[in-house]
Structure formats: C-alpha cells, structure tokens
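Sorry to interrupt, but I need a hand with the structure work. It will help me judge whether the discrete encoding reads sensibly. Write everything out right here, beneath this request:
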Amino acid sequence: MKKRVKSIGFALVLLVMIFQPGGTLGEPEGTEEEVEIIQEEALEEEIKEEEEAEIVEAEQEEEQEEEQEPQESQEDLTGSTIWPGTNVQQKDLKDRYHLTFSEDFSEVMKAIESDYRKEYKLPEEGDIVLKATNWQDIIAVYLLKKQQKGETELFLSGDDQEDLKRVYREMNRVVALEPARILYLSVKEEAVRFQSVSVEALIRQDQSLEQPVYKESEQEFLRAYSSEECRLLCAAETGIEEFLNQSEEEIDGKRQAVRKNAFQAIGKVSYIWGGKSDAIGLDSRWKDKNAFGLDCSGFVSWAFLNGVHENIGGGTTGQWMASVPVTQEEARPGDLVFLGPPTESDEIPHVGIVAGKDRLGGLIAIHCNASDKGVTVEAAYPAGFRYVRRPIIFQ
C-alpha cells in the first residue's frame, strides 16, 4: 500500500510538471476539466499497473513455495539417515554376554521389590507404585560379584534372590529429600522418592577414592552389563518389563509406554502379511499363529494404540506421513525406522520402532517381520533400516 501511494504521488508530480511551461511549477496549460481527466486517467493507469504487479508478485511467491515443497520432501528421500553401530541381535545375550535367566526370574524381581515396599509401608497397588529404574545396574553389579567368584556362564534364578536383594537395597533408598532420580508419590501427605544409584555414579565414586576398588576391566564389565544394549536384550529374552523401567529424566512416559507395549508382543504374535489389530492388550486371536498376527505396520499401530491410545497412521506410508525426519543423534525410543521412503507406485517396504541405542550410538529396533516370524529386537542398520522419523504425536 505504501508503494502504491508513493507511485501515485510521483505520477501526480509528473503530471503537474508536464503541464507546466519549462517544467516549473505554476498554472498548467489546458482547461481545468482536461487536466482533471488526464489526472484521473493517469491515476487509473497507475492503480492498474500496481494491481498487475501485485498479482505477478503473488504468483511468483506461490511458484517459489511450490518449488520449495518438493525440495524439502526430496531432502527426506535422499540418502540414509541411519548409520551402523554394533550388530546387536537377541541371541547375543547368551552368545556375547553369556547371560541366561530362569523362567521364573520375573517373580524373583517382583518379590524383591514387593518386600522392599512392604518394609517402608509403601502402596503395592494403585496408579503409582514405587519401582526401581536401575534394575540393569543392580544386575550388572551382582553379575560382577558372581564373576569375581569365578563364574563364567552367568545364570540368574531364584537361588540368587537373597544375595540380589542385598544389592538392590544397597543401590536404592526411599527418601523424602530433594536429590531424586525416580518417581514421586504421596504417602501420608509426604513426598516420597526412590533414590537410585547407577553404575556410572558408582564408578565415579570409586575413582574418587585414593585406592579404587574396581579395576579397569571390572569397570568395563559393569558398563557393558548396565548398557542400554544389554538392557534391551534382557527385556527381549525374558519378557520382564522391569528391565525397561527408566526415570522420566531418561525417557518420557509416552515413549516408555510405547516401548513396553511393543516388547510385550515378543513371542506372542506371529508375522502375518496385512495383519492388523485394535485390541487393547494381547489379541486372543494371536494364539492361532498360523491364521492371525500382525505385519510390520500393524505391529507399530498396535504398540501406539496400547501405549498412548493414538492412531499413528495406517500402513507404512501413512506412518511415514504421520512423522517427521530426525537425525540418528536425536532419535529416541518410540521414534520410527523405515527401510525406504514412499514412492508413487509402492508402499514403503518395512517399518519398526526405535527401542534404544547400542554402545556406539547405533539404533536398536523392535519390529515384526517375516524372516523372524514375529517380533524381534536387533540393530536397525544391519536389519536394513535407513531412515529414522519422529511421530508427530511426540512433537
């Protein structure tokens, strides 16, 4: 609008000067009516030119926006956004870590926590039940004790319950003070927290001593068995969700819920092309593994439906469109991994969920595929995943 006013003003000045003898200001030649007609025509012409210029400018801006959209989309579709880490597979828990559990070990862990809550008269049921988020650290410290006794094949069972309970108590404490790492809950109108010790905190404390207790090899052992990689393998092989418990500082509640529900399906559902389910909890039809199951996108949809009660999109392409690109460094549990981008003619071949990262920062995925005949946990890159994206619901 300012441009139009300036242009009109300039046109008027020119008109006055045109009708001024010698180009100086004064009475214009011609009748007053003629001058007015010329001025009106000039104004109309100027307004018309301005309107045409605005239309051209708007068309150019629209063209630029249309050109930019494919460029942004093209950035998403070119090049892998996932780089390799370690080649993690579920069987590595036994093959690499030499660690196995008894079938009833879940009950051992639950009994230890229940005894601890009863001692402090904390709730056993309800929306908020105090639970440790450092189980993997506890296991690592206890396994080191076993190794120091000369045990090479590490097997955990009910026989370890009393010794493991002592380590649990050493590494967890109920407090009502500010330093906290886990959950808040109200007990007798008092803010109660679970203060937990991590392996890294233990090592830092040990290194501050004049004569450290842990040798370098023992520090490496503790870090390996408390790693995210080992945590995910323990959860996948045992089905014990306590291994996945982490504080809100480490992983927010929505992502935690999606990951836990995804892990529940391990060993419980087979891969069936086109398989979908809107069941809350395990679908009773999955007992017939030859007739009912999930495909890759059906598994992702089911995990999100049960975890956050959200629709993550139908099919692999729908899930791609309901997410935005992130870098591997930015990726968090609950983000999605894809083998490739959508094309005009074909669906994206495969999708999975980020479960965590290995010790090198490589992504570990949980997905439902035909090769493994169901849900499995493994390194994302060797499994063929090349793109990582964040569901819009996590934005």
Q: What stands out?
A: The chain has three domains: 2-71, 92-244, 252-394. Residues 272 and 293 are 5 Å apart (CA to CA).
